[in-house]
Amino acid sequence: MRRLLPALFLASATPVMAAETPSYGAMLEEFDYDRPVERFEFQSQGEKLQMAYIDVKPENANGRTVVLMHGKNFCAGTWEGSIKALSDAGYRVIAPDQIGFCKSTKPLRYQYSFHQLAHNTHDLLDHLKIDKATILGHSTGGMLATRYALLYPDQVEQLVMVNPIGLEDWKVEGVPYQTVDQWYANEAQTTAEGIREYERKTYYAGDWKPEYDRWVNMLAGLFNGPGKNLVAWNSALLYDMIYSQPVVYEFGQLKAPTLLLIGLQDNTAIGKAKAPKDIQAKLGNYPELGKRTAKAIPNSTLVEFEKLGHAPQIQAPAEFHEALLKGLSDLKS
């Protein structure tokens, strides 16, 4: 495989982007978040890596820290509304870009696992001398947050999951396996219009606002830049991790009080488009999945948003953050 990678990159199809699509480097160099970005340098699997992160200390601290774990098509920067809401309420907020994403290193060879990403994040918190925190994960970040809480139960004050994926095991449900090479071929065809259409249907329940284009261009620019093949390759490896490493069977082992914030219009399921039509219709049923997950997790609280989709924190920030802040105060200890 190692000998084939350069040839694979050279032979890959080039994404067809609209003329207005920006071009960003492989570490999203030219795209600015609304907060300063710091970098944690460390070694993992023989690689020198950089994890980009945002660290916001509140003016009136309440002594608590929230760590935000982004989703597959999101970044630390997409948490900007949540960072402000939490910081204004007195929380210190740490928002990393996981390795393979956004402004962090995208290694050519890396064995991705939720265990590894959780360990990387734990090392970052050790570096920042944070012993205990609330771990908040959205989408794929919900799977990572679950793994983190299972690995480090004594260091998780609370667990919050926002429309987490992985509430069902797609391979068991009938979603066919795709090789990393197949994922790579798909990712190499990423376009801004494709991102926009998918997000419109899934993330925002069919609604679209002009401000969402900032996040579309962020992603599209990565796939349109000089490092596009490396970006697509890491994305393929990450999809393989998500598909093949379910956390759904371990929800009953979670010890931290858990808050589930679920937009009921969501229908996200990895690999859904490759499944037979009759199976597609059954996947990503968040009204059912949210309730099932709340029953599976001890000491859990479920909050549902009837009209919101996969990204309620972006779609309806005022409604979402009111529920989040209340839930952080009300979670059972």
From TrEMBL:
GO terms for biological process: acylglycerol catabolic process. Keywords: Hydrolase, Signal. GO terms for molecular function: monoacylglycerol lipase activity. Residues 65-317 form the AB hydrolase-1 domain. One of its GO terms (cellular component) is membrane. InterPro entries: AB_hydrolase_1, AB_hydrolase_fold, AB_hydrolase_sf, Epox_hydrolase-like. Residues 1-18 form the signal peptide. PANTHER family: HYDROLASE, PUTATIVE (AFU_ORTHOLOGUE AFUA_2G14860)-RELATED, MONOACYLGLYCEROL LIPASE. This is Alpha/beta hydrolase. It comes from Pseudomonas matsuisoli.
